[in-house]
Automatic annotation (TrEMBL):
This is Nucleoside phosphorylase domain-containing protein. GO terms for biological process: nucleoside metabolic process. GO terms for molecular function: catalytic activity. InterPro entries: NLR-like, Nucleoside_phosphorylase_sf. It comes from the Eukaryota.
Amino acid sequence: MRLNKHDYTVGWVCALPIEKAAAIAVLDEKHDPLPTTTSENDSNVYTLGRIRGHNIVIVCLPAGNYGTNSAAAVAANIRRSFPSLRFGLMVGIGGGVPNEDNDIRLGDIVISQPLDGTSGVVQYDLGKREGEDRLRRTGYLNAPPAILLNASASLQAEKSPVDLSNAVTAIVAKAEDRDERFSYPGSEDHLYRSEYEHVEGTGRQKNTCIRCDPSERVGRYERECDGPIVHYGIVASGNQVIKNAIARDKIGEETKAICFEMEAAGLMNHFPCLVVRGICDYSDSHKNKRWQPYAAITAAAYTKELLSHVPPLNTSLDTKSKPVDVSRGIQALSSISKDPEAEKVGIERRKDKLIDGSYQWVKENQLFKD
């Protein structure tokens, strides 16, 4: 059966090419492009496929155009071109906000979840400046669709953290077979004290922490498994890259956020979605790209598991996906239509006269004959 644009019910939005590559890597099936997909003035480029019974539309932000405004434009186009989308997913990488309450590590996954009156996403750079260093945030972002929150709760209830880690790890392993970029970077994962600034390396080691002082690292316990752990909470979204641990901690404390990213705030009020982020750095000066591919694939792998807890929509029963035979409708209307002029003449002719057959039932009723 040939699919059309109404058969696609899930929109998957990415910000970076590596995030889109990860999304494609976890597809159960990849579909051919539709002959005519996009609406007028839609500049998005789509990849189509299927995951766990859901027909998926994957789209990536334009190269070099990141942030909330670009995300909002992409979302507006995808909704016009695929009008039957039930919900969206914002999947990719993000910066972690580690603290005493949240042992977030590289490769872990953060899911946006409503908390303390928020929708699960806060725009940390939008508000009114009150005093020298205080921003009162204004506006409100919509919560993720209930069906995704229910699926998230179902996934949390069904699997322990270790079980989910193993499930995600298995999906990642399959993706690695297709694309070696997604290989596990290794157990080397160092978090430095917030006050300690990065010392840049030289040559091929320029973007590493080879010259950073090991004594400035934060001591953390060794985990039982190397796989990713899933965290649920608030995602802080804004139009700037956070690359300063002091700023990270301050905004994190104010918003209770456990992750930073740059697109979700542009989607929540226009494209109802859940945010899934793989942690690739700690939003500090030691940030580098080494963990980005692995973080992208762990986020995509979790999203695939999540979709297995969302009942697929049977689009074959959706009348929107079936062409309407306009000619039959016109023919049916023609059979019962009347000539207005002829009707007018008939009405005038029958004026003040009984309509044919009037009171006939009285004549034929035996009660009145007797």
